[in-house]
Amino acid sequence: MALVLGIESSCDETSVSVVKDGREVLSNVISSQIDIHKLYGGVVPEIASRKHLEVVNTVIKEALENANVTLDDIDYIGVTYAPGLVGALLVGVSAAKALAYATGKPLVPVHHIRAHICANFIEHTELEPPFMCLVASGGHSHIILVEDYTSFKVIGQTRDDAAGEAFDKVARVLDLGYPGGPKIDKLAKDGNEDAISFKKVSFGKENYDFSFSGIKTGVINYIHNAEQKGELVNKADVAASFEKSVVEVLVDNLLGAADRYNINRVALAGGVACNSRLRLELENRKGSKQVFYPSPILCTDNGAMVACSAYYEALAGNIADTTLNAVPFLSVELN
Ligand code: KG4
Ligand code: ZN
Question: Which of 10, 37, 103, 204 gives a 20 to 30 Å CA spacing to 48?
Fold first, then answer.
């Protein structure tokens, strides 16, 4: 039996969790900064770092208490060290290093995208690699072949904006507030998805890259044109039409890549994996494939996914020393 303490602070959530044997969550405390950043329409890195610093020790304490364990019971301390906002990452990394140094427990370096993928293992105990995973969040859009628990191959990725970033930017021009993904998801349900044609970008057969900046610009131009003509914009129609073209290309590439590599299991991960239309579209088009996605609370940033990933990294012998540093950019293939 191994208990892992997982610490996440790469963006705007300070979260700490205790997970048993990689799959059983004993606690998962999430302190979100969304209410602060929404005043600015997006995450302000300097504020994020300071807020992490203010709450990190309390969140660690609460996670241990909720799991009914003490630091003595913990076998590994896992922490997200890459990729993310460097100042934000540093807070979690420093806290984890201090705990590891003080207790003598092994420190496990966790890659944020690997952790998002691992969120799928928590609720789907039958899920094992290999599978094809779409990771779509505020900072990333990747199609990843999960070869093993600690072996990942990038099959496709965005060439410009991340999918979540496109949701957030479109929500901003529609005056819906931050974060935009959940707002567009809700509003789109009242709209006509065929009202406006926003062109989806594909890079051809056997290429699984994404580009979302064209769709985002298409929405901005549509709104500006309507405003110049004094026409009223039906926001629900814009949300539904935008969401349709983004979701279609996400599912095209995920299923296309799975077919190309002969993989019968596909999964979603990252904040955009909460999107109800994405889940529905994948279920409708999956054919004979098995589909997996985490509960919404495990799709957005959380400590449980970090602890889960740390468990498998530790089994593979990936232990860091106290020279571990925050790394803002790092391929998911390296850790
Ligand atoms: O994984 P995450 O919490 O943080 C990053 O690692 O970036 O993802 C946050 C992103 C935001 O861009 C947010 O708008 C998007 O996930 N998101 C959604 C939904 N819920 C969150 N996008 C579409 N539909 C949703 N329901
Ligand atoms: Zn994330």
Answer: 103
Place of tokens 């996440």: 8
Q: If you take atom 18 of ligand 1, which residue's CA is the nearest one? A: 181
- Are the C-beta atoms of residues 268 and 72 closer than 8 Å to each other? no
Q: Mind listing the pLDDT tens digit for each residue in 263-283?
A: 999 999 999 999 999 999 999
- Alpha-carbon distance of 313 to 296, in angstroms, equals 24
Tokens representing 131 are 């599978």
H-only helix segments in the chain: 34-37, 45-67, 86-103, 112-123, 163-173, 180-188, 213-228, 235-260, 276-285, 296-299, 303-315
CA 26, 32, 36 angle in degrees (round to 5)? Answer: 170
10-residue mean pLDDT series, the chain (335 residues): 98 98 98 94 95 98 98 98 98 98 98 98 97 96 98 98 96 94 98 95 94 96 96 97 98 98 98 98 98 98 98 98 97 94
Ligand 1 center–CA 138 separation, angstroms: 5
Predicted pLDDT at 335: 81
Token digits for 314?
């530790």
168 lines ligand 1 (CB under 6 A): yes
Task: For residue 98, give the nearest of 21, 10, 5 by alpha carbon.
Answer: 5
Ligand nearest to the CA of 278: 1
Alpha carbon distance 113, 196 (integer Å): 33
Peptide bond into 179 cis (omega under 30): yes
Q: Measured in angstroms, how far is the CA atom of residue 61 from the centroid of ligand 2?
A: 23
Q: Which amino acid type is present at position 64?
A: L
Could you tell me if the CB of 271 is within 6 A of ligand 1?
A: yes
Ligand 1 contacts CB of residue 179 (under 6 A) = yes
Distances (CA, A) of 61 to 47, 58, 67, 126, 221: 22, 5, 10, 31, 49
pLDDT of residue 125: 93
